[in-house]
């Protein structure tokens, strides 16, 4: 019913999530409400099916990859902490000004971490390299049936050629960062959360 | 003796459409109480007075198109590729859109009850409101007692009276030969029953633009929130109902209703045959002596914050459509029937233990299909008019998504659009989503 949603979230939990992710108190309670409404099985965790029930996500060409990003290696349930940790990547960088804590290490929504999130969408086997195959897979997801294999292949080849500086025919994370260094990652990979 | 007094107090005013003023007084007292409670809650809340569930959402979304966003992404990319425009940062667009939809989407929120900005002293809507003060708790407790021990039994009696009146009355009228008198008595019977039922819900309905009331031989379409919509609309006029044949109590009511005036009840098997359905509806409206048909083109209950896709079936019949917009005030009771969560009986009990049902009904001017306009566009035009009048969000998404999966063709349309940005395929207008 959602009526007891926030009473299941304790203040200590909220404080911990606040420290780890940088979200404000009210943002956390509202996102908890959202988490709870997606959790049809009411077991405190989301499965892949719970995400796929969102029509706008189901029609997103990269929907499956995005859903994957929430689930740690080999798991198929994500709890609220994991949910928030993943969403934290999309907090705007400006919001960090209030929570400047020198001991907290690199925030989840740093430019680097945002780029890492995008990199991992390609790098399915987590070997820290985007191979030609992995690139082709993502391309195929985005274009559907509208482009031939040959054309797609040459696009992939050109992309790797552009980015690959050490000649290993794949794109490492540092090569990825270099290619995108002029792109406004902070703005393009951020969502404006209302307070 | 008591029974006759009760009957007199309920049935007679209902027959003549008079109100004894109880409901109005009750609503006035209720409004004052809820305002007082809202003030106390605001004062007591330590978190600054921003309710946790704002109606304007959790995030602020931009409204630029895929093309605009990706072009902007690429502008910052060092060297545009020749003969095939792809950049590694293209994924950012889909990524951001995907995460936005996970945080907040336009569809899934329509199938659960609307969140209130301020608590209305019902346990069921208590989302974030902890213990405020002794006084509020006492009023809440008093409210529980009044609603469950006084109002509920009263309302159940009223509902039972209304329904038995309908069943007995229509069966008796059915015996009469067809004539004008029979029709008038039948109309009176139906309206009386619905009025009694409305009192059984403490319903306060405000009808606007009565001059646009649906005429005989027309089709009335409205947005759907709950089975109570029928009671709300039928309090102000007689309609021919359309629906599936049920068993049990519903079936009994259906069979008796049809004895006194024509309604359109379909067997489950008939519903699958769209042509048969269309034919029966067409035959009904062709007869100018029959009451206007009442149809809910969304096909399912939505939570009254938006209007979802109208199924084109009713708009293909080719007659004048009389749109009606219904908007409930969520402060007094949540009218939405979440059929996944509550059975019909549980739902009716919830309705009868709410404070009241307060709603506005707007009759819109009749609309007809224009030359060269197909049924889908006509349906969308009517839907927009209803959404605009009722202050509801106009969505193209199918209400069937409550239970079913979204069609692959929407994803394919996005893929096609993106592909055109890579290799410059020319797009036909029909490919646009």
TrEMBL record, chain A:
Keywords: Calcium, Cell membrane, Cytoplasm, Lipoprotein, Membrane, Metal-binding, Myristate, Nucleus, Phosphoprotein, Protein transport, Repeat, Transport. This is Calcineurin-like EF-hand protein 1. The gene is chp1. CDD domains: EFh (cd00051). GO terms for biological process: protein transport. Pfam families: EF-hand_7. InterPro entries: Calcineurin_B_homologous (IPR051875), EF-hand-dom_pair (IPR011992), EF_Hand_1_Ca_BS (IPR018247), EF_hand_dom (IPR002048). It is found in: Cell membrane; Cytoplasm; Nucleus. One of its GO terms (cellular component) is nucleus. Residues 26-61, 110-145, 151-186 form the EF-hand domain. Belongs to the calcineurin regulatory subunit family. CHP subfamily. Gene3D superfamilies: EF-hand. GO terms for molecular function: calcium ion binding. It comes from Electrophorus electricus (Electric eel).
Automatic annotation (TrEMBL), chain B:
It is found in: Endoplasmic reticulum membrane. SMART domains: PlsC. GO terms for biological process: phospholipid biosynthetic process; triglyceride biosynthetic process. The keyword Endoplasmic reticulum applies. Its main location: endoplasmic reticulum. Pfam families: Acyltransferase (PF01553). Keywords: Acyltransferase, Endoplasmic reticulum, Lipid biosynthesis, Lipid metabolism, Membrane, Phospholipid biosynthesis, Phospholipid metabolism, Transferase, Transmembrane, Transmembrane helix. Residues 218-329 form the Phospholipid/glycerol acyltransferase domain. InterPro entries: LPCAT1-like, Plipid/glycerol_acylTrfase. It is a multi-pass membrane protein. The keyword Transferase applies. GO terms for cellular component: endoplasmic reticulum membrane. Pathway: Lipid metabolism; Phospholipid metabolism; CDP-diacylglycerol biosynthesis; CDP-diacylglycerol from sn-glycerol 3-phosphate: step 1/3; Glycerolipid metabolism; triacylglycerol biosynthesis. GO terms for molecular function: glycerol-3-phosphate O-acyltransferase activity. This is Phospholipid/glycerol acyltransferase domain-containing protein. It comes from Electrophorus electricus (Electric eel). The gene is GPAT3.
